[in-house]
């Protein structure tokens, strides 16, 4: 177990910083020592030391002057999908290996304005396409829970999850298109929180599937995640889908689960590993003991949600990635234009090319009605189904992932096997609901399992309140108790 500042929670370190018991400069220096110590995990792909120490110096002055902001002096990591001005922004793709962000994303600007400090950019699946962090051009990030065989940290925000779980930053930005915050959090034994679609601005985030993409956060506790999200959420006129809903105070969320009806899809239990089911029942028992009414519900089979998700996201990806032609973005080293061969497209990894081809197929004239158009109709049906369901239940609870973390060298028989890693998480993105993964226990290989909580849109306060209760009574110590060194 660690004995330095990196073993503390974000709230604990915030309290120490506020009263001057530790300086941001000392803290940043210590965090870089931790990053160096855990360099074998391949989490940070670029460090921003000059920026971090400059931010730390300004934070220390504000603290001494009594002008500390909400996140003053707290070091965090940023998924390499966000624009941080004057830092490289590659989406872990060779297609953008030399791109430097000329402006700041809205989410990171919000965090810097509250005093957070940027340690550097974090590893991810290329263009956020993947569930294991193995499609990155920088190589796979490694799960800190690895013991012998190297394990994946999940994806696409695997580097962010692994960094928080290893104690090399107090929180980390991720993005969530179909579970890319929640599934890695489950694999790494930490908290992963995706708010309602529109709560956080997408401006300055590299687009994968625009009607699904949402900023998310990794943290060591539900409270830490709430503290970070309070500073991330804002209305942004620069994002056409930015919500005008009142911004909640999540850090102080305290809505009782007593008397609330909690639904769980009983028809999903049959084919799951017994450890996954037992931890699921453990979460339901916690809520029931706190006075919640537990109610079985029926949902469609997994594949109905999964196929709709991949049909639509691949279509949006094909459209979004069409900008990487080498004219404005992409590889410009070849001055000769070959009309039959796009040099930038050749730099995309296999998974990115596969999803582009899928999307082009679904958007083609001959396939449109039974492709993209059908996907839109199915998504509307699914959303209506859940809106009706949320009239009867306040929250839906089920596992975050059907299994524990698997080996980096594991081979899927075909791409659809890999896509099934997202079976439990894609629903929240299809309907725009907030969702969170909270560590609930260990699986058959003594690796973390997360429980997945989801409410209807813009009910984050109840979601966070319930997640705090699950966390409290699950008593999962996670990264503090597990010897990752």
TrEMBL record:
- Keyword Ligase present in the record's keywords: the answer is yes
Protein biosynthesis listed as a keyword: yes
By its UniProt entry, which InterPro entries does this protein fall under?
A: Amidase, Amidase_CS, Amidase_dom, AS_sf, GatA
Pfam families, alphabetized? Amidase
Provide the coiled-coil residue spans. none
The molecular function terms in GO held by this entry are: ATP binding; glutaminyl-tRNA synthase (glutamine-hydrolyzing) activity; transferase activity
UniProt keyword terms in alphabetical order? ATP-binding, Ligase, Nucleotide-binding, Protein biosynthesis, Transferase
Q: Which reaction does it catalyse?
A: L-glutamyl-tRNA(Gln) + L-glutamine + ATP + H2O = L-glutaminyl-tRNA(Gln) + L-glutamate + ADP + phosphate + H(+)
- Quote the catalytic residue positions: 79 (charge relay system), 156 (charge relay system), 180 (acyl-ester intermediate)
EC number assigned by the record: 6.3.5.7
Membrane-crossing residues? none
Q: Name one GO cellular component term.
A: glutamyl-tRNA(Gln) amidotransferase complex
GO terms, biological process: translation
Q: Which residues form the Amidase domain?
A: 27-463
The record's section on HAMAP family has: GatA (MF_00120)
- What does the sequence similarity comment in the record state about its family? Belongs to the amidase family. GatA subfamily.
User: How does the record describe its quaternary structure?
Assistant: Heterotrimer of A, B and C subunits.
Say what the protein does.
Allows the formation of correctly charged Gln-tRNA(Gln) through the transamidation of misacylated Glu-tRNA(Gln) in organisms which lack glutaminyl-tRNA synthetase. The reaction takes place in the presence of glutamine and ATP through an activated gamma-phospho-Glu-tRNA(Gln).
Protein's recorded name: Glutamyl-tRNA(Gln) amidotransferase subunit A
Originating organism? Candidatus Cytomitobacter indipagum
Gene name, per UniProt, is gatA
């Amino acid at each position: 177990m660690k004995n330095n500042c990196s073993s503390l929670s974000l709230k604990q370190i915030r309290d120490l910083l506020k009263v001057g018991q530790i300086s941001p400069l000392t803290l940043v220096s210590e965090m870089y020592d931790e990053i160096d110590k855990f360099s074998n995990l391949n989490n940070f792909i670029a460090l921003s030391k000059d920026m971090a120490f400059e931010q730390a110096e300004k934070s220390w002055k504000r603290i001494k002057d009594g002008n500390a902001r909400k996140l003053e002096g707290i070091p965090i990591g940023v998924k390499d999908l966000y624009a941080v001005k004057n830092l490289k922004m590659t989406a872990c793709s060779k297609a953008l290996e030399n791109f430097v962000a000329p402006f700041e994303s809205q989410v990171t600007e919000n965090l810097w304005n509250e005093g957070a400090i940027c340690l550097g950019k974090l590893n991810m699946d290329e263009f956020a396409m993947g569930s294991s962090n193995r499609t990155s051009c920088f190589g796979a990030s490694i799960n800190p829970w690895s013991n012998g065989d190297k394990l994946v940290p999940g994806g696409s925000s695997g580097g962010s999850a692994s960094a928080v779980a290893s104690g090399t930053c107090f929180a980390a930005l991720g993005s969530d298109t179909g579970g890319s915050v929640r599934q890695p959090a489950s694999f790494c034994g930490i908290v992963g929180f995706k708010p309602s679609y529109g709560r956080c601005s997408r401006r300055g985030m590299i687009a994968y599937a625009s009607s699904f993409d949402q900023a998310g956060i990794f943290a060591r506790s539900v409270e830490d995640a709430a503290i970070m999200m309070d500073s991330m959420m804002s209305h942004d006129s620069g994002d056409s889908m930015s919500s005008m809903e009142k911004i909640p105070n999540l850090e102080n969320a305290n809505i009782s689960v007593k008397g609330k009806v909690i639904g769980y899809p009983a028809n999903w239990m049959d084919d799951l590993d017994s450890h996954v089911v037992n931890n699921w029942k453990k979460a339901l028992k916690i809520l029931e003991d706190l006075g919640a009414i537990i109610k079985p519900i029926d949902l469609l089979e997994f594949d109905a949600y999964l196929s709709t998700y991949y049909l639509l996201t691949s279509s949006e990806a094909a459209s979004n990635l069409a900008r990487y032609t080498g004219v404005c973005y992409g590889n410009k080293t070849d001055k000769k234009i070959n009309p039959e061969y796009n040099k930038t497209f050749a730099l995309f990894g296999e998974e990115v090319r596969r999803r582009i081809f899928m999307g082009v197929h679904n958007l083609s004239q001959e396939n449109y009605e039974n492709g993209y158009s059908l996907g839109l109709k199915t998504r509307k049906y699914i959303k209506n189904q859940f809106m009706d369901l949320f009239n009867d239940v306040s929250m839906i609870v089920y596992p975050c992932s059907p299994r524990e973390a698997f080996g980096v060298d594991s081979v899927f028989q075909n791409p659809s096997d890999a896509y099934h890693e997202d079976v439990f998480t894609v629903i929240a993105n299809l309907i725009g609901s907030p969702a969170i993964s909270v560590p609930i226990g260990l699986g058959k290989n003594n690796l973390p399992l997360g429980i997945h909580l989801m409410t209807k849109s813009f009910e984050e306060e109840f979601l966070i309140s319930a997640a705090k209760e699950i966390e409290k009574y699950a008593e999962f110590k996670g990264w503090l108790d597990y010897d990752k060194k």
